[in-house]
Amino acid sequence: MGPLSARLLMQRGRPKSDRLGKIRSLDLSGLKLLSEHLDPKLLSRLTQLQELDLSNNQLETLPANLGLPHLRILRCANNQLGDVTALCQFPQLEELSLEGNPFLTVSDNLKVSFLLPKLRKVNGKDASSTSSQVENLNRELTSRVTAHWEKFMATRSPEEEAEKAQADFVKSAVRNVRYGPESLSEFTQWRVQMISEALVASGGTQVRETGIPERPSKATAAQEPRARPMALKRSGDVSLSLSPSKRGCPSPPAHVEGSPMGSDGSQPALDLEPLHFLQCHSKNNSPRDLETQLWACAFEPAWEEGQAGATSQTVATCGGEAVCVIDCQTGIVLHKYKAPGEEFFSVAWTALTVVTQAGHKKRWSVLAAAGLRGLVRLLHVRAGFCCGVIRAHKKAIATLCFSPTHETHLFTASYDKRIILWDVGVPNHDYEFQASSQLLTLDAASIPLRLCPVASCPEAYLLAGCEGGCCCWDVRLDQPQKRRVCEVEFVFSEGSEAPGRRVDGLAFVNEDVVASKGNSLGTICLWSWSQTWVGRGKRSTLAVVVLARLQWSPTKLAYFSLSTCPDEGIVLCGDEEGNVWVYDVRHILTQQPPLPAAPQAPTQILKWPQPWALGQMVTKTMVNTVVANPTFTYLTALTDSNIVAIWKRP
After folding, report:
1. Do 118 and 139 belong together in one domain?
2. Mean pLDDT throughout 48-73?
3. Which residues have CB under 8 Å from 610's CB, separation 6+?
4. Is the model's pTM score more than 0.90?
């Protein structure tokens, strides 16, 4: 489609007229329009236009001077819009449709509410809740910027040039003023800059809510603030719906067992506060569902922050037929993806660089989810739809993980006793993954349960905890064989992990030390990859070099997954009693041999009184998965009674 013409506008406009100035409704959907095709000089002649449909095109931006003063309804669904600020030119807008724009986020939804004071509906839903949230955010941000102004100006000398000081203040405010969850940081920083600039322009005298458009009174009804992202769908895809209202009980006090540093080398208890207990995977959203099994969770890496210590507070959880994406600070379920008939067992994150039709590079967070049906679904989380499906295995997928060095390489491990390495590629201009390519097939003697690329050489070797033990494969792609058998089996000759026994927990504590757990009684093993591997030679069986053992539950039950925070030296594991075992192993990693022969006690154990879920009697619950973000700021645990529990370290 080329540039628009007056003839085309009259053909597609209503009522039919030979004068553009009489058209009130115009349908320009499905014409493959690019942003440059929207000629402001031509469109500004539509002086009476009230309804405009631009959906199903290829628009990346809207021109800033379209000149449609009476526009009340605008449809822009299924485009490539990456910014909404141009919508401020339509102050009379009452209804707006933006679903299917994969680069728009929750923050853009809030920007829309701020910029359009008369907006009543967004994507067919009432906009008043978002409007109320925006007003609450504005009040708090204005207060914080004003306080920052007073503090900032108090440190400036009278001789300092006023213009430079004011410019420095705006930069300082954007950098330092923070409020609300990470998922809304783009919006809050945008507003902080606007508030700061208005404060500077007023000479510091403007301390009221800065730049908040006046709204109809019905939009300001008091409501609990909630971040509500758009519900997005793609035709032919499994239905994706917004999360139901968060259901949870008030966080009960956590009983913490731990001791201060003593002569036995034990560590002081870590300060962890329970934040939220959520029930977001229920069948039919029923609060009575305490049976849906939750299997895995993973924190989204902070791909775009690029600051030292930056980390994500967004976690993905899976169980039953749903995958949920949760903001840990607020407890809000940002997105919920459902696949009827599926039971999800595993999730994993990656970030892909996508080039738009205009040649712009965009960074995507992509979540892979897999389970009972042997399918891998690739979810565009920020936009909220499934953009690809890999038919990976004929049997259920137990676990999956992305390569830490190749963003498109995905390992899938199945009950068919195979591990397959895929190249999922990158989405095309329609945001769809093409056919994935199979790079390697790794045969296992038993079902693989946990996957773990070797931290010091992830491109060369892959570890897997299996029903029959711990195995290692050579995964170098410059080798000719595309189907490979296990290269080495690791033997735990003493303690809890005898040869050939199940290894259901596996993770690296640092670049060398591995934490592993079997189904025997009572311990987690810390062993050295480098010291073990150096003695390999041509042997296919290796006894691991054990560095230490950690005391754990004496349960005979299996499949409690452990996890680690390598930067913090933390090992985590749940148990059959609903406890979370927390180990700070930094002192073990730095201690010179010989290490104590007895298993090391946990730094602390998190417990709850029963009953603890939603005010209903839960006589017993198991915590089968515990994961923390890299800086150990947030910790998420999943139970067999359909509860997601979240803690925060202050």
Report:
1. no
2. 92
3. 578, 618, 619, 620
4. no
